[in-house]
Design brief:
alpha+beta, Dna Ligase, domain 1, 31% helix, globular, Nucleotidyltransferase, domain 5, 274 residues, 8 helices
């Protein structure tokens, strides 16, 4: 039986919707199709008219499925997530530990955050211990007290609820943009330190051992960089925008240039312990 492809739908701040379709390949996907559409119903990352937006999305998905067959749909939401450290204890009374015990821990985490108005995007299994002894692989081990430590990425559930209503059974799950980078869907200059420039904000994600650990956001974005370049180089904002996008100036070079932007440098310095 042929394995279904994966389609990531990215909702951008500027109304652009990007569809990336491919086949699962390790932690990333082997991209076979990439489409972009523009929706006037998606303004500053917010969906204004759900009915029209739904039609645009479903028409685009149908076009993809006509070409590649049935596909699992994931939606990438351009929100800065909250990160939660969770420790869960299960009393196993000497029996063997099963994968369903770990799944039960994750289910408890999802339920607790759902009650707080959060949509869980991703759960990282940080480590386990049995009767006080750390174990790398707990499955089939025996013990009385099984503890799991988890790192959980979550966002406010308002937008996910609306997307769930729009896509219904077609939706397989959610992503956030930094995780798309870590899991191989986009290129980056570092697997442990990533900056994502949005129009009016900047997301900074720090990791360790190629796994995300901390996400923060700054109220500085592409519009601020365009303004500063325009002033420094004495050119028009339109010319500054061309330098950033068409000439691909917005990369590691601009971050390494002399104390620009100060706020990002300070944030990076404060996180050196990672």
């Amino acid at each position: 039986m042929k394995k279904k492809s994966i389609t990531i739908i990215e909702l951008k701040e500027n109304g652009k919707i990007v569809f990336t379709t491919g086949n699962a390949l390790g932690e990333g996907i082997d991209i076979v199709l990439r489409e972009e559409i523009y929706s006037s119903e998606l303004k500053k990352g917010k969906i204004t008219e759900a009915g029209l937006f739904k039609k645009q999305i479903l028409d685009a998905i149908k076009k993809i499925e006509d070409e590649v067959g049935e596909t699992d749909i994931f939606v990438s939401i351009n929100n800065t997530p909250s990160i939660h450290k969770k420790k869960i204890l299960i009393k196993t009374n000497g029996r063997k530990i099963r994968e369903r015990d770990v799944a039960s821990m994750e289910s408890l985490i999802r339920d607790s955050l759902t009650k707080k108005g959060k949509e869980v995007i991703h759960i990282i299994r940080e480590g386990f211990s049995i009767d006080g002894k750390k174990v790398s692989t707990p499955i089939d081990e025996r013990g009385d007290r099984f503890i799991g430590n988890f790192l959980v990425f979550a966002i406010d559930d308002k937008k996910p609820k609306l997307i769930k209503r729009i896509l219904n059974k077609k939706l397989s799950g959610f992503f956030i943009e930094p995780l798309l980078i870590f899991y191989g869907l986009k290129t980056s200059f570092s697997r442990n330190f990533i900056i994502i420039f949005n129009i009016n904000s900047t997301q900074i994600i720090f990791g360790k051992d190629n796994s995300p650990r901390y996400v923060d956001s700054l109220p500085l974005g592409i519009s601020d960089i365009i303004r500063d370049l325009s002033y420094i180089l004495k050119i028009s904002p339109r010319e500054a925008e061309r330098l950033l996008h068409k000439d691909k100036l917005l990369d590691l070079r601009i971050l390494k240039s002399e104390d620009y932007p100060i706020a990002i440098e300070k944030k990076v310095a404060s996180m050196r312990f990672l």
